[in-house]
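Annex B. Sample input.
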Amino acid sequence: MNAVLKTAPTLYPITLDELKLHLRLDSGSFDGNLTLTQCLAYGSKAIADNYTTHVGTGVSVIGKQAEVLVHHGTNGATGTVDTKIQEADALAGPYTDWTGGAFTQVTTANHNADYKKQYTGSKQYIRTASKVLLAACEFGTSILVNAATTAEDSLLTDIRAAAIGHVEDITRRQLLTQTWYYYLDSFPADNFIKLPFGNLQTVDAVKYFDSDGNTTTLAALTDYLVETNGPGIGRLVLPYGEGWPSFTPYPSNPISIEFTCGWTAAASIPYQIKAALLLVCADLWSNREGQVLNSFGYHENKAVQNLLASHRLWDEFL
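Annex B, continued. Sample output.
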């Protein structure tokens, strides 16, 4: 199989904080465990009858304990402030309102006070969005995260990367959103082409190159159909009555299929896979100098194999 990574994933199946919680690691101090990040700078906020003018900067909280703090100063006469928590899978959004994330409305009767609300959602990023009515009001927001930082963070990052690679090798999957080029030497005799790694999201381009170096791009729906097939193997399928192009191929990678695959969010990955990742990380953490090999010459964690068995892709590829 000739597949080349184009765009690597930007998310991780498990966060460092989830890994440290699993390994029972701590920074060693109360202050070292807490991180306070400004979300929306404190100051006088003008009237804005919307939740798009006064929005904060997203903060990564996945796998961590997080509280959102709203610091209220003085409201202008009759002024009111409504604040809510929004969440997203990516820093750039799109953000949606988190259910249960609306703060009590602040008026002149309850201003000059701080309010807090714990975030218990599953998205990676959160921020605040506020609406100001009737008069300018003074306030700002921040996000307090309980996340231990240890001297071993660099090693844990490497261990996590190794564990992800190991689990992806066993399952023959790529876990989170990423884009690949899949190269073929010729079109198959079958009326379909299987694409590797499972969880096909989109087929972005299908091209072939003839012996003169000319490029032809096939058209979706006309020249091929896309089967995403959920967590299974995605396919390109010929429409009824159509056939694959006949051409004299270019000598190197004459057929190129660009596709995006993987789960779109860490929260969507089955828990068996996450549990296997944590077990592999714990194994690498505990056995840094070497491991006892079995009769076949390698170390095998049977719990990992059992957890991943039902998620392995068994298809063969060209």
